[in-house]
Design goal:
The complex is a heterodimer. Chain A is α+β, with helices and mostly antiparallel strands. Chain A is about 35% helix and about 20% strand. The longest helix of chain A has 13 residues. By secondary structure, chain B is α/β, with parallel strands linked by helices. Chain B is built from 15 helices and nine strands. Chain B has a nine-stranded mixed sheet, with helices on one face. Chain B is globular, with a radius of gyration of 20 Å. Classes of the chains: A alpha+beta, B alpha/beta. At the A-B interface, strand 2 and strand 3 of A face loops of B. The structure holds iron/sulfur cluster (2 copies). One iron/sulfur cluster binds next to loops of chain B.
């Protein structure tokens, strides 16, 4: 599924993103399931606040890590996230 | 037995809290023990809170609240609230019987994350017959309220010979109710389902047809509805990796406080499953005989012991090995490498001889009267 650049990205209210102390990891929780996230994925999802659009997220993360060229990786991850229902656009 | 200190013990992730064996329905495939009437003593609210706290500390994060019918517990909201405060993702697994919209709202306020509603079939007549109680229309209403209150709605239908040919209608019902998840759970033959197996096990042809329909539907609703399809292992040639490995991930606490490595483990001999009234979850998980019993592979016999697939399925289900061949150390007879594999074909043949329409041998419904017979 393609990411629309104009619409804001929002973490799905049907899922929960949470830090797990026992696993030292961010996880996504949903009915009868759990996905463990790596640090970059968790950072991206936390920025899906229903206000930011793709460009904002890329900009924020590039500034945070003082780097450039993150867009492609971010888009790839967000496409997966959209397909899995972790985020929404509309 | 096993319990060798060399085995690395991973922390529990899933806690299934069976809050009560009481249930107003009478499903003939119920996974509760046949003699549940003997275990009618229940943990108190404080006991449950302590159990939740201890398991969470060890790393449990998914919490299933089931039964019986968990709505029977008046302290359900209080337990949910405690669970939410600890950071559990809390799943309510209910027949929906006795639920009303006010309680759905109260549970949401307490922090409940999702509700799984089970419906027995796609028609009122069959659903009410299987439940042993008039409940079909109300269940559908509850499913709509669950959606309306903003929960992810999981619709669960247990599949067996009586309803398997209704697969298209069951899928249509899931669409009509706008389920977010649909669990199509082919009956697993434990507890009451084991007792009723001759009348519940579908034929291979029925199963294959239904699976094809469900598969096509899964593709059609991709991105809208997720399908959890629980396979009926009698038609497989390898067993399921039961519980993701004994004592690795799952912890079940029965209504009376008995801690079980799998929800049927109560039926196994010699295990002496510990009670949370006597031990902490930490002690139970790490040191009890029951939880160490089938950890690792030291307990295995041939053909599992030297099998190169043992890391994959752990020899299958201990309860099935015990129920079908009286030996809990044996390979799950579902496995085609098991010398007892013929038992599966015999079960299938025996079921095929029973014609439900003739009513020669009625289904045994799960109720207190029948439970006292065991
Ligand atoms: S399977 Fe049926 S009888 Fe058993 S607990 Fe669930 S609703 Fe009650
Ligand atoms: S022989 Fe045992 S370990 Fe090997 S596949 Fe069969 S059940 Fe699994």
């Amino acid at each position: 599924m393609a990411i629309n650049k104009i619409l804001p990205l929002k973490f799905s209210p049907m899922h929960r993103l949470q830090w797990e102390e026992a696993q030292q990891k961010e996880v996504i929780l949903y009915p009868e399931g759990m996905v463990e996230l790596n640090q970059p994925s968790a950072e991206i999802l936390k920025l899906c606040d229903g206000i930011r659009v793709l460009g904002d997220i890329v900009e924020t993360l590039e500034a945070k890590f003082a780097t450039t060229g993150l867009e492609k990786d971010i888009v790839n991850f967000l496409e997966d996230a959209l397909k899995n229902g972790w985020i929404q656009q509309n | 037995m096993a319990g060798s200190s060399k085995i690395k013990i991973t922390p529990p992730r899933w806690l299934l809290a069976e809050l009560t064996y009481a249930c107003p329905l009478q499903c003939p495939y119920c996974a509760n023990p046949l003699d549940y009437q003997r275990h009618s003593k229940e943990l108190s609210t404080e006991d449950w809170k302590r159990v939740l706290t201890q398991a969470r500390k060890m790393g449990a994060v998914q919490l299933g609240l089931s039964g019986g019918e968990p709505l029977v517990r008046k302290d359900l909201e209080e337990i949910v609230q405690h669970a939410r405060a600890l950071g559990y993702y809390t799943n309510l697994i209910t027949s929906a019987y006795g639920m009303d919209e006010a309680r759905i709202i109260a549970l949401k306020e307490a922090g409940l994350d999702h509700i799984q509603v089970s419906i027995q079939a796609s028609s009122r007549e069959l659903s009410d017959y299987l439940a042993g109680t008039k409940s079909f229309e109300h269940k559908k209403q509850v499913a709509r309220w669950v959606k309306k209150q903003g929960y992810p709605m999981v619709l669960c239908v247990v599949i067996h010979r009586e309803n398997i040919d209704e697969m298209p209608q069951i899928l249509a019902m899931a669409e009509e109710l706008d389920a977010d998840y649909l669990e199509l759970a082919n009956t697993q033959y434990y507890g009451w389902a084991h007792a009723n197996r001759d009348l519940l096990l579908p034929t291979q042809a029925q199963f294959t047809k239904a699976e094809k329909i469900a598969q096509a539907f899964k593709e059609k609703v991709e991105g809208k509805m997720k399908i959890y399809y629980v396979v009926p292992d009698f038609y497989e040639d390898r067993p399921k990796a039961c519980m993701n490995g004994w004592g690795t991930t799952f912890l079940t606490i029965a209504p009376d406080g008995v801690a079980l490595p799998c929800h049927s483990a109560r039926e196994l001999p010699e295990l002496n499953c510990p009670n949370v009234n006597e031990f902490s979850i930490e002690e139970i998980w790490h040191h009890s005989k029951a939880f160490n019993f089938f950890r690792g592979d030291q307990w295995m016999q041939e053909p599992c012991r030297s099998c190169d697939e043992k890391e994959k399925d752990f020899g299958g289900c201990r309860c099935q090995a015990y129920l079908l061949q009286g030996d809990m150390y044996a390979a799950d007879p579902v496995c085609s490498k098991s010398p007892q594999h013929h038992l599966i074909q015999e079960a299938i043949d025996s079921a095929a001889k029973h014609d439900n329409t003739q009513n020669e041998q009625p289904l045994i419904f799960r109720n207190s009267k029948n439970s006292r017979l065991y």
